[in-house]
Amino acid sequence: MLVLLHHTHVDTRSQKPKKNIMRSDVLHECHRWVFVVKKGYQEREEAIQTSVITKLKGVTLTNSSETGLHLWSAEDYVIPPNGEQVFFIVTNYIETPNQRLGNLIMNCVPDGQCQSDYDCAEGEAVIAGHGIKTGVCLNSTGTCEINAWCPVEYSSRPTEPLLSEAENFTIYIKNFVRFPKFEFSKSNVLETSDDTYLKRCSYDRETHLYCPIFRVGDVVHWTGHDFQDMAVKGGSVGVLIEWNCDLDKDASECNPQYSFTRLDMNQNNSATSGYNFRYTRYYKDQNGETYRTLYKVYGIRFDIMINGQAGKFNIVPTIIAIGSGIALWGIGAFVCDMILLYMMNTSSYYREKKFEIINFKYDQQIVTMGPKC
Amino acid sequence: MLVLLHHTHVDTRSQKPKKNIMRSDVLHECHRWVFVVKKGYQEREEAIQTSVITKLKGVTLTNSSETGLHLWSAEDYVIPPNGEQVFFIVTNYIETPNQRLGNLIMNCVPDGQCQSDYDCAEGEAVIAGHGIKTGVCLNSTGTCEINAWCPVEYSSRPTEPLLSEAENFTIYIKNFVRFPKFEFSKSNVLETSDDTYLKRCSYDRETHLYCPIFRVGDVVHWTGHDFQDMAVKGGSVGVLIEWNCDLDKDASECNPQYSFTRLDMNQNNSATSGYNFRYTRYYKDQNGETYRTLYKVYGIRFDIMINGQAGKFNIVPTIIAIGSGIALWGIGAFVCDMILLYMMNTSSYYREKKFEIINFKYDQQIVTMGPKC
Amino acid sequence: MLVLLHHTHVDTRSQKPKKNIMRSDVLHECHRWVFVVKKGYQEREEAIQTSVITKLKGVTLTNSSETGLHLWSAEDYVIPPNGEQVFFIVTNYIETPNQRLGNLIMNCVPDGQCQSDYDCAEGEAVIAGHGIKTGVCLNSTGTCEINAWCPVEYSSRPTEPLLSEAENFTIYIKNFVRFPKFEFSKSNVLETSDDTYLKRCSYDRETHLYCPIFRVGDVVHWTGHDFQDMAVKGGSVGVLIEWNCDLDKDASECNPQYSFTRLDMNQNNSATSGYNFRYTRYYKDQNGETYRTLYKVYGIRFDIMINGQAGKFNIVPTIIAIGSGIALWGIGAFVCDMILLYMMNTSSYYREKKFEIINFKYDQQIVTMGPKC
């Protein structure tokens, strides 16, 4: 079919300008796609090996009437503490200290009411959770007795984040990527002899690209949200580090690109947003009796995502790219012709000329086909 | 070669029906593959950003002779407790309370026997683990003395899962996906003003697709296994959420698809199945002496896997798809011919006709192009 | 363009041998690429489902002057303990026992000096972390008073790894892979009736491929590093398990391949290497006063990465591969011609012969090709 259209090139001069405008657009787009966007001449490596270590810095003091003074340092507010790629920072919490397992008079939950023990099936869990019915109905209160950790959790979430200071904590993200196929590896941390640099510096896209230290407040801000709002109910933030390396160029041009998004909601809707969970600390008194402190923590979950690919010139994909390029050229042109022929009302002259050409073409090209098979 | 077959279309009518059956099958398959399966006319986006938060609900009471009453709520039986994408639920356990570090008479393990201290190399670990030899041979028992946490772990795993009630616990999976390229995002949680909905509802493929609350027993059942069996030794379950979105259609047609598989074994073999690990809780008595409780927990590991891609019409891939479609058409036909010619015993008439055609073919092919469009 | 070269085939016999050498290289390479490397005739499945469970074995005794005897078993030195795919082994640590929250005289950090309370803004965090200023300047020492956990952490890291014995710990990696599309699944653990095998054996590429038990020291060694060096400051190691399965062959030929790399540094540079974090254990005394032990642990982070794909014969990709193969053949040949024509100084005879051909071809196709190159 290439013949077809290239002949139209030659013969149907009248259409040429008009058609070429159309066609050249598509063709150029196609070529751009194959050669520029897809870098068709390169062998690509997407299976990168990567390691991420995170470390938080910062400390804050909370002082609640019930539970007194708390000093929150990284080993407390980072969960888990072991420098993972995905971690959670406490920004708000409800503490319920000195819970002991015992019989509790249950009167807050709907399925607590009872006339007789019959209403309190033994071993049945309370819908609201937290407890198991003992099977006894307390006539005094007309509610079932339950086995639970008493006192029950204070249910009121602070409306102001108790760790509002967390806005100024800093996240240090050490990322190391390796492209095994090309035996190329690089880190996002500046290789410097100045040991104090990483203590002082703070990330800046222009001036400090290789200082991977981020203020929590900034990261949240870059996602288009406000830290103090987010800190109350919590949320989930994604930090994407992209390594797109053209290894035909110098290694110094293979740089990390950071982007920040809020993962748990879209701008307009907050129905499903928020992040919280509970954890406990268990103690034993001198009699060996177990008691515990229950924490319900709200906070921000950070997910460091690494994404990378590298490309390097290689003859085989080049040939293929050229090939598909050629094919595209023809196909693109061919499609344009079709469009021109059938979808646009072009001059009947053009139409008939076309067919005349087709007929006229009854003697070519086949040579090429025979051997090919 | 295209010519070739299209001529057979024209000339060798005798074969036509027979061949076309074969060919049309393949060709149709090829076209389906390119256009329907691969949606060749769409620009695709597979690099989705996703966030997952999980929360378990349910509480159960265990009562063992040695260790008394235990109330298991989510903060205890979910490990880690922080709402991860991969989490473990305790369904069975061995508790060894009040272990203290001390000298223990070792007599259970094979390498414990000794005639003299010479047999008990100091600092050598006991093969079975749990202890380090002190270098002393106790003549009384004829075994090495070891440094270990005493008492040693009770080695008998309960044959009935202690947390059999876990079957009725519920998993709430909040998943949020975003396709950055198309600026499209969606959650698997119903956007409703009815706050109680998510408290009452339970997932159903038909009626409650957007209620991501699953009964643990059901999830295990859907993998083709029985919860109570699995609960004894533990296991590993994968929950796959797939988002395949054709964004040319309405957003309401982009829905999550859930699938459930057991990851740690195939149906017929259980040799390598099971999931258990140990963790400890450390305490100090009033003298500052450390003691601990050792838990060996068996349970089910849930791995929430998100998988998604979106497609949207775009002119460039369309052209390419049409092109490859055309190519396939020809190639497919060509291959069929080859098959017919050489792999099938077709009439010698057909064979010679073919070759005659080939020679005779020095003047066509365009014909083949016309119809092809 | 195909015409071109096939004509040269026919007409320019003189060049044929020479050219074919060149061309056949490229073509062979191309075909190899499509059929052998890419296994073009197979339908591929890369979305594997995989489960990993890890378990460590080994125990060691540490004896520090300050903190006395410590017995480290898996539940202590593996963080997190729950058999994850990514886990950390403690090889070195700094223990700071019996910290209590209180007012501490701060004199180690630069911003501690003060003339008056004015220099000690209340609530301000100390740059070095660990504390919050109380707002009081202690004239005695001329430093700010801070709220912190006292005593502060001993800052000296042991120069010899305290858990040097960790070199002999063993890692058991149970991996299970499933290719849903082909309903094929396999494990890296030998299916044997001999229960003791997995207790005795140790991985060997030749003799014990299906014994996934690795000595920590060996794994580090295989990355090209020395365990005792790495153990001091810690590091990050990647264990890659690859499953490349040609399911047209027997299942027994689908075997795991292990490879080991250090992820946190390249051979020559150790600037950014190391892995450490802090965690705490909280206690309460008989008065309910909280105190804690702070651990700063150095160690090795293992990241078990699973990578796999399977292929099985399928007619559709086969047809496509043959097609692209044919295309490549032509294109490859075409490219070779171009190289021969324009980039190499071939005999002018050849050159003119070429053009003669080209001219001769002016009523085919070539027109289109000339410009195209």
UniProtKB/TrEMBL annotation, chains A, B, C:
Which ranges does the record mark as transmembrane?
319-344
Cross-referenced NCBIfam families? P2X
Give the originating organism: Sparus aurata (Gilthead sea bream)
Q: Does the keyword Lyase apply?
A: no
Matches recorded under PANTHER family: P2X PURINOCEPTOR (PTHR10125), P2X PURINOCEPTOR 5 (PTHR10125:SF12)
Q: Disulfide connectivity?
A: 114-137, 120-144, 201-211, 245-254
Q: What protein name is recorded for this chain?
A: P2X purinoceptor
- Its function? Receptor for ATP that acts as a ligand-gated ion channel.
Looking up Pfam families in the UniProt record yields: P2X_receptor
So what family is this one in? Answer: Belongs to the P2X receptor family.
